[in-house]
Amino acid sequence: MKKLVALILAAVLCIGMFSSLAYAGEAKDSYKVGVILYDTECQWAKDIMGGLRAIGEPLGVTFETGRGGQDPEEEIQTVQNFGAGGYDGIVNLHPGTIMPKMLEICEEYGMFMVTSNDMTHTCEGFEEFSKSPSYVGSVWEDEQVAADAIIEDMVAKGATEFGLHGFPYGLSAQMDKRLIFAKEKLLELGISEDMIHEGQSFDKAGAAEELLAQYPNLNAIFSSVETVSTVYQPLINSGRSGEVLLNCYDPNDDALSAFYDGTLSYATTGTCADSMIAFVLLYNAMTGNRMVQDDGSAPSINMKYLFCTSAEDMENAINYCSESNPPYTLEELQPFIGPDASYNDLKAFAEKFSLEDLLERHG
Question: Exposure pattern of 170-192 as b/e (b: 16+ CB <10 Å)?
Answer without folding.
Answer: ebbbbbbbbbbbbbebbeeeebe
